[in-house]
Write a structure and sequence with these properties.
126 residues, mainly alpha
Length: 126
Amino acid sequence: MHQQLFQRVDTLHSSIQETLLLIQRLASLQPDDIDDDSQEPLPDTYRADLAEEIQDSLKQHEGELELVQQDVGDVTNVHPRKPGHHNLTQREQDREQTNAELLAKSSKLGEDFKMYVPTPHHDPIQ
């Protein structure tokens, strides 16, 4: 289960990075930009279409982030204990370490998402 959650966090991170590239692309668009493939001027709707794609992606990322963080919380709170407890077996210590790493990774992803992506409750630092 931990491995699947690590993979979901990594996949979501990659998806967010791709969306950030689209945001940068939108921010850098100029009226005279041309399509890389056709070498024709970009259609008038390009900017609006790209903005809509970004908005849809951000909504999906936010929903997936909430689900991932909930799943991480569920998995890591199954047997909550303090790391380094003297009565833990090696297997329990390994699980505690994995839980801590998974929590840290998903928390960092959530913080990064809020920092780089404007949400109704948070404006990114410019």
